[in-house]
Amino acid sequence: MMDGVSSLLIDGVLAFLLVAVIFVCFFVYRRLGTIKEGQAELRILVDQLNHAVVEAQRSVANLKQSAAEVEGRLQIETRKASSLADELGLITEAGNNLADRIERGLTGGNEAAQSVSSSFTAQAEPKKKQQKEILAALREAR
Q1: Which residues, 6+ apart, have CB-to-CB distance to 116 below 8 Å?
Q2: Rounded to two decimals, what is the model's pTM?
Q3: Sign of the C-alpha dihedral, residues 101, 107, 110, 115?
Q4: Using 50, 70 and 90 to split pLDDT, how confident is the model at 100?
Q5: What distance in Å separates the CA atoms of residue 4 and residue 30, rounded to the nearest whole number?
Q6: Contacts of 124 (CB under 8 A, 6+ apart)
Q7: pLDDT digits (tens, 9 = 90+) for 65-95
Q8: What Å distances lie between residue 93 and 36, 45, 88, CA to CA?
C-alpha cells in the first residue's frame, strides 16, 4: 500500500508541476504574442522612417538643384550689375570732366566779359548772375 500511496503522491506532484508548466507556457505565449505585435508595429515604424528618409533625400536633391539654378542666375545678375557699375563710373567721370570744363569756361568767360568794355557791363550783369547760379548748381551736384 505504501507503494500505491507513494506512487499517487509522485503522480500528484508531477501533475502539479505539469499544470505549473502549462501556466508558465501560457504566460510565455502571451508575452511572445505581445512581442510579435510590437515587432509588427516596429516594422511599420521602420517602413515609415525609410519612406521619410527617401523623401528627405529627394527634397535635398531638389534643394541642391534649385540652389544651383539660383546661383547661376545670381552670377549673371552680378556680372550685369558690375558692368553697369563700371559704366556708371565712366559716365560719372565724364560728367565731372564736363562740369570742370564748363566751370573753367564760365570763370574764364567771366574774366573776359569784364575786360571787354564798360558799355556791356549792364548787359553782362544778368549773364554773370546766371553763370554764378550754374556754377553753384554744378558744385552742388558734385
Answers
A1: 124
A2: 0.44
A3: negative
A4: confident
A5: 39
A6: 113, 114, 116
A7: 999 999 999 999 999 999 999 888 888 888 8
A8: 83, 69, 8
Contact 102, 139 (CB under 8 A): no
Residues 6+ apart with CB under 8 A from 128: 110, 113
Close Cβ partners of 87 (under 8 Å, ≥ 6 residues apart): none
CA distance 43 to 90: 70
Which residue has cell 552680378?
78
Question: Contact at 8 Å (CB) between 127 and 113?
Answer: yes
Amino acid letter, 89:
G
